Amino acid sequence: MTNVPRSFSCVALFASFFVLTFSAFGQQAAPQPAPKKQTAAERLAQWRASRAHMLQDDFGELARYREANTELKAPAEGEERVVFFGDSITDAWHLNEYFPGKPYLNRGIGGQTTPQMLVRFRADVIDLHPKVVVILAGTNDVAGNTGPMSLEQIESNYASLADLAHAHDIRLIYSSVLPVHESTEAAEEMFTQRPPEKIVALNHWLKDYCANAGCIYLDYFSAMVDDKGHMKKELADDGLHPNAAGYKIMAPLAEAAIEKALASEKP
Q: 83 — phi, psi (to 5°)?
């Protein structure tokens, strides 16, 4: 048997270790392809799929306020109860901070559309016996949260909600659909899903409807839109949902509309 010099053996061992290490490092360092960015439509479909079970079991999400409604006492004599009824824009609004001491109830649910709001209007509005209801809805209908909807379908749901309010002597305030912007990365999707021209058309119809149906039109849109027809950037970080500055603009407009409604005759 031939004796291999010890120095050669060490050199060979080190070389083998170097080759294996470099090879492994090369494999680990190989650049990976960037994941494909989902389109707004794909993200909406994924979001809708995540809510499918809930929508199947409780389409109107009546469970959200069931306990609170059960515990709520009837209005006291002289109480001018008001229900704010809507989607996430209402849901996120801390009414006690903007209307301290007022008997105002929040019945907003994030993501909802007018078909869902029709389902829960009795439980979350009529049965609470308010004098006034402030409805802010429609933006999620435009986005297609519960499926594609035409403007005519949204308008029909507005009219049905008004019929229910009038039938139960509840004064109705219809809020304009808020504008949207695309000025931040977080806002791009909100803007894509809600074309400004559809919002303008819906608000135009809603204003005319209120004038003819004895409702009060609460125009947030004009106070929050910029010269491009978009939401003022400083009022909504994600392009849709008002921040504190946005709600600060909305609150006095809502209060003025409520005072006007309370001073008017019952529908």
A: -110, 125
Q: How many residues does the chain have?
A: 267
Structure token pair of residue 176: 């304009």
The residues near 190 (Cβ < 8 Å, ≥ 6 apart) are: 180, 182, 238, 239, 240
| Structural domain total, the chain | 1
**3 lies in some domain:** no
Q: How far apart are CA 87 and CA 242, in angstroms?
A: 12
Residue with tokens 């059960």: 70
- Output the domain CATH number for residue 133: 3.40.50.1110
Cα–Cα distance, 114 to 87 (Å, whole number): 9
Burial class (CB in 10 A: 0-12, 13-18, 19+), 130: buried
Domain presence at residue 187 = yes
Q: How many CB atoms lie within 10 A of CB 81?
A: 19
Instruction: List the strands of the sheet with 104-108, edge to edge.
Output: 104-108, 82-86, 132-136, 171-175, 216-218
**Burial category of 57 from C-beta neighbours within 10 Å (exposed 0-12, middle 13-18, buried 19 and up):** exposed
Q: What tens digit of pLDDT does each residue of 100-149 get?
A: 999 999 999 999 999 999 999 999 999 999 999 999 999 999 999 999 99
Q: What is the largest CA-CA distance in the chain?
A: 114
What predicted TM-score, i.e. pTM, was given to this entire model? 0.81
Chain segment 34-77, per-residue pLDDT in tens: 666 655 566 666 656 766 666 678 899 999 999 999 999 999 99
